[in-house]
């Protein structure tokens, strides 16, 4: 048995978005189960939303796993904005705070942990690749930097080679080339319309600044851990491995692919199990567009009409801010009454619990990377409706490369 003072101690900073917090919590648990001491840092805002979403929430989300013997400590820092600030409605301000202000708060927290005589010495910093500061902060405190990429290796490769895209005229000019991109190492050929949404835009935003800066910073990482599966992206992973210590460590899921004892949902979960139990095997379509992207009101209405006409049973996760947090009831008038006996419309659920239910026969998805990994695991076929960011590139993997969706 390794003594506590001999165990490696890592500070783990999760990106404050739902689709990043979930795989970060589960990587932290995996590392702790292999003998790491982890100090996990969430933002005040993520912590507040997570605990508000649970009945009987514990102030320390890791209490249960610590009781099971893992050494995961927990702390929170400000992201620079008040806890109650509506980050969904004011997305660019939120991103600007992450770009410009967050690092000062993290640095203060890291300094406190590293200099404390009451905790075991810290040897590394694990942080999401999208942060713009980790290699600098790690260097300042003499820590190894382990960068955690929670998306596909293909997406990492596109961002990593953004200068190549620029030089070749596929990105960064007003009339970008529309022919296929065939010069990125490890990427056989990709249509520009399958690049991430940011790489298809000619005007740059705060998100572009985050991508450009973080992909400079990641060049200073000692290791990159990617939540993908080597066999599913072999050429891209190998090409990246030729450039840097890049490891495909996925799929990162809760232990046993069952509902986690660590609370990670930002919205209260509705339980669909009893309702699903009444439905025949493979008869229910699960519909969800993840935690981050918005759907336009027109698209939402079209989807509602499609679901209505299809006559299939469905579970539809409609986040309270799915169109906008200032539009609370975007569904067409009469829709809920029309479909009430064959559908459940809920604000959020435990998705892995739903996907593992035998009544589920398909998933209409926005192609978030976690959703794709989870569906692959459960062998649920996908219908793809990408909305933003990496989702277009993920669609290409699902439909064109792996042929597990449409
Ligand atoms: C966005 C990106 O699109 C994604 O590719 C990136 O990796 C993270 O940011 P998001 O919209 O959050 O992702 O989607 P996704 O990656 O699918 O993650 C959503 C997570 O929330 C999944 O783990 C899913 O199981 C969970 N979820 C979703 C629930 O637990 N309940 C729900 O009702 C909906």
TrEMBL record:
Keywords: Glycosyltransferase, Transferase. Pfam families: UDPGT. InterPro entries: UDP_glucos_trans, UDP_glycos_trans_CS. Its EC number is 2.4.1.-. The keyword Secreted does not apply. GO terms for molecular function: quercetin 3-O-glucosyltransferase activity; quercetin 7-O-glucosyltransferase activity. Belongs to the UDP-glycosyltransferase family. This is Glycosyltransferase. It comes from Nyssa sinensis.
